[in-house]
Amino acid sequence: MATIRLGKRTDKRSPLIREFVPLANLEDLVFGAWDPIPDDAYTAAKKAGVLEDKDLEPIADFLRGIKPMPAVFENRYVTRITGTNVKQGKTKRDLAEQLRHDIREFKSKHGLDRVVCVWCASTETYIKPGPQHATLEQFEKAMERNDDAIAPSMLYAWACIMEGVPFANGAPNLAVDTPALIELALDRGVPISGKDFKTGQTWMKTVIAPGLKARMLGLAGWYSTNILGNRDGEVLDDPASFKTKEESELSVLHTILQPEIYPELYDKFSHVVRINYYPPRGDNKEGWDNIDIVGWMGYPMQIKVNFLCRDSILAAPIVLDLALFSDFAQRAGMKGIQEWLSFYYKSPMAAAGLQPEHDLFIQQTKLKNTLRHLMGEDQITHLGLEYYAS
Questions:
Q1: How much is the pLDDT for 347?
Q2: What is the pLDDT of residue 116?
Q3: Considering only CA atoms, which of 144, 145, 168 is closest in space to residue 156?
Q4: What is the tens place of the pLDDT at every residue in 24-78?
Q5: Cα–Cα distance between 133 and 123 in angstroms, integer?
Q6: How confident is the model at residue 247, as a pLDDT?
Q7: Nearest CA to 143 among 186, 151, 135, 34?
Q8: What is the C-alpha separation between 265 and 40, in angstroms, rounded?
Q9: pLDDT at position 283
C-alpha cells in the first residue's frame, strides 16, 4: 500500500496507509479456500507455474497445509472446468447452508474473531438480472427450487452475508451485485464490493482514457486483444463465460469518456475486446491495444500499447488489499456497497441509479478520502489557494 497525505502539503505528513489505518496484522491472517479441484495450495501453485521455486519452496510446508474445502460447483456455469471436490445437495439452498457451516467450522477451528471472503474463482456464464434477484424472498425461493438464474457465486455471497462475512467479488459474475443481496447486506450490516479485479488491459484503459478526455482528444476506436494460457484463459475460451467478461470490460470507456456529454469527440467510437486462449503463454498474459485518436482540426493519431504482464502477480496484492479493507470497513460500521473500493475493480458496484466511477485517479482520491474521513482527518481537495493568499 502507498502513502497517504494528511493535512497541507507544507505539513509534510505522509504516512504509509498501513501505518495510518488500523488494519489487521498480516501475522494474524489465516487462509482457507473452497475449490472444486482438490489440490492443496502448494500443488496448485506448482501447477500454475506463476512463482519460481526460489519463492515457493521456503513456504512449501505452509502451503501444503491449506487444503480446499469441497466447493459448490456446477459445470454448466463454468464449462471448461471439471471438478471432483464438489458438495452434493438436493437444493441450492441446501448447498448454501453447507457453505455457512464451513464458515462457522473454519472460524471455530482456527479461533478467529472475524472472517472475510474474496471471490477469486472463475468467470461464470452470463446471467442477466431477473425477478429471481429482485428481492430476498424471491432469491431464497429460487434457491429452494434450484432455479438456473442462481449461480454458485450467488450462493457463496448469500452464505457469507448470512454469516456476517464481508464479500468482495473479483470476477465479473453478478454474484453479490443484485438487489436481493444488496438488501441483505444492508440488513445484516455487511460490507460488499465488486466486480472483476482491475489488473491488465482494463487497468491501462482507466489510466489512458482519463488522459485523452482531460486533453479533449477524440476517440475513433479502441481495439484490444489478449493471449492468455492459464485456467482463466481456458474458462474465457467458452463464449458464454467470455460474454460475462466482455460486458464488464466494455463499460469502462463509455463511462469515462461520457459520449452523451461530448458527442463530437466520443459518439459511436468503436470498442472491440478479444481474449484468446493460448496455453504456451501460461499466466504471462500479453495484451495489444490499438487506439485511434483524433486531435485538433480532426487530424488522426494512434497509440499502440503492448503490455506483457503476469496476471496473478498483478491480482494477488489486490486480493490482500480487499481482504484488509473489507475487514476494516466492517469494524468501522460500514455496510452494503463499498464504492470507495472501486479502485480495485473493472466494473464497480454503485448505488441504484448512480453511474459508477471508472477513472482510476478519481477512484484513488475517493479511496484515500474515505480513509481520511474514517480516521477523522480533513479531506484533500487539491484546491491549494491558501498557499497563495496575500
A1: 92
A2: 98
A3: 168
A4: 999 999 999 999 999 999 999 999 999 999 999 999 999 999 999 999 999 999 9
A5: 19
A6: 75
A7: 151
A8: 52
A9: 84
Cβ-Cβ contacts under 8 Å for 179 (sequence gap 6 or more): 129, 133, 134, 135, 352
* Ranges in the chain, pLDDT < 70: 248
Is residue 171 within 8 A of residue 180, CB to CB? The reply is no
Give the relative orientation of helices 239-257 and 201-214 as an angle to the nearest 10 degrees.
20
Reported in sequence order, the residue ranges of the chain that DSSP labels E, i.e. its strands, are 117-119, 167-169, 191-194, 218-228, 270-277, 286-294, 300-308, 336-337
Q: What CATH fold (topology level) applies to the domain 9-197+313-374?
A: Rossmann fold (3.40.50)
The pairing of strands 286-294 and 218-228 is antiparallel
CB atoms within 10 A of CB 189: 13
Which cell numbers hold the place of 2?
502507498
Please tell me whether the overall predicted TM-score, pTM, comes out greater than 0.90 for this model: yes
CATH number listed for the domain at residues 201-309: 3.30.360.10
Closest CA to 78 of 130, 149, 126: 126
- Could you tell me if 148 and 133 are in contact, meaning their C-beta atoms sit under 8 angstroms apart? no
State how far the Cα of 344 lies from the Cα of 315, in Å rounded to an integer.
9
- Where do the structural domains in the chain lie, given as residue ranges? 9-197+313-374, 201-309
